[in-house]
Amino acid sequence: MRFLFRRLLLAGVGGLLTASAASAQTPADFKTDSINIRRIYDEALLRGQSYEHLRYLCTRIGARLSGSPQAEQAVQWGKQTMETMGFDRVYLQEVMVPHWVRGKAEKAGIKSKKLKNVPKINLCALGGSVGTSGRPVQAGVVEVRSWDELARLSDAQVRGKFVFFNRPFDDKLIEPGAAYGGAVDQRGRGAIEAAKRGAVGALVRSMTSSRDDFPHTGAMRYDEQVPKVPAAALSTNAADWLSQALKTDPGLEFSLEMDCQTLPEVKSYNVIGEIKGSKRPDEIIVVGGHLDSWDLGQGAHDDGTGCVQSMEALRLLLASGLRPERTVRAVLFMNEENGVRGGQKYAELAKAAGEKHLAAIESDGGGFTPRGFGIEAKSAATVARVQQWAPLLRPYHSDKIGPGHGGTDIGPLRDQATALIGYDGDSQRYFDLHHTAADTFDKVHRRELELGGASMAALVYLLSKYGL
Across the beta sheet with 261-275, what order do the strands follow? Predict the structure, then answer.
């Protein structure tokens, strides 16, 4: 332990003391905080509960799209699990959510006089898409990689066909999230832009740099002023094959059959566990993930890991004897994937109640090895205030702290909280699994998961003690 203190002091206490006037921290505080954070990590690594909670959520409940029976089961599981953790209060927060269902498995085929040995076309409906009205839609295909390419095509080239949006991830980018951001607009807007030109449907390359047979679902949207056409995601292998096939036979026809539909909205809930602050109970820190998931896999990395880490962050504080000075809430948000209704309802009710949110932390990037935190704040001074704690997190490799994205569920708190904070794990593998049938419990590493929960608990401890 003494060696740890010396290494911490030599590595980073100078940076900590630079901000001591603003934070009222002293070398003695630093030593105490080092001891307490070590206790948090010891508890997580030796007695962590996140992994077993995730096992139950994924393997006993599974996929839990908003409005589904599994989503309701997950709500009850979240409430019952947090009631065993010794929190001061556990409660449900009602919210109405959309209810989209995939229906029978999608079917796709190719009709061509020139192509032989046509492979199986692996695809899935995009979330929110309309179906094909009980029969296949068969039409030609026109491929584009940008909105400009689509704009340059004549109406005659597009009308009555599928538009195939085939812009890949930019693999030069170090952060996969940046590559996702550069491609995902075709998933969101593809059906609208295709329908504006008279197309019968939209086919979209899956949002990943991985080359495999897993199609990636995800939210798409419609414009009520534009006809609604079906939209499907092709696996990257299927997209690559189709692109080459169109070069061999530009006149090939694609057949698509989907059974999906949107049903009436359903009552659901956010699940909230709370520890009352010992000194400043009126100041609130939220830590959360989203309880819903897409319907293809088990919702393990997206976002079962964020949910169990959030619950565990509160448990770790109590188990380590570190009752927070400010109120801390674990929030399992409902409906992040296709509506953000849970995040919007939480923010709406918090504002109506006149609550004061100091910070909100979200884990929604998978349960991979922790790297640090991204801070979204109006003031650079707020970011700097969090950065001053980096030396305390450095021994645990969670010290990469800087400006960044907070999170989708906590986004509606932007005007109420001093800072929105996104937990950052190593993201290189995340989009291999994101929104696919491969996002299952066996892809989660116990130690990585528990380390992430400990990193979140450590930051909550510091926020609770020193504020912003």
Answer: 89-101, 261-275, 326-333, 280-290, 356-362, 417-425, 370-376, 400-403
Lowest-confidence segment of 26-40, 121-135, 195-209, 306-320 by average pLDDT: 26-40
Q: What is the pLDDT of residues 240-290, one digit of tens each?
A: 999 999 999 999 999 999 999 999 999 999 999 999 999 999 999 999 999
Do 264 and 99 touch, CB atoms closer than 8 A?
yes
Q: Which two tokens stand for residue 346?
A: 């939480």
Sign of CA dihedral 225, 231, 236, 242: negative
Q: Token pair for residue 15?
A: 């940076």
Set 312, 336, 362, 376: catalytic member:
336
Active-site residue 336, yes or no? Answer: yes
- The predicted structure's pLDDT at residue 27: 81
| Closest CA relative to residue 286, chosen from 344, 329, 332, 324 | 329
3-state secondary structure of 243: helix
pLDDT in tens, 378-400: 999 999 999 999 999 999 999 99
Pairing of strands 253-257, 137-144: antiparallel
Helices (H), ranges, 95-225 = 147-152, 155-158, 176-181, 185-196
Measured CA to CA in angstroms, residue 167 lies from 29, 122, 146, 255, 289 at distances of 52, 18, 7, 21, 30
- Contact present, 376 and 405 (Cβ < 8 Å): yes
The confidence score (pLDDT) of residue 24 equals: 64
Answer yes or no: is pLDDT of 19 > 70: no
Is 84 strand, coil or helix? coil
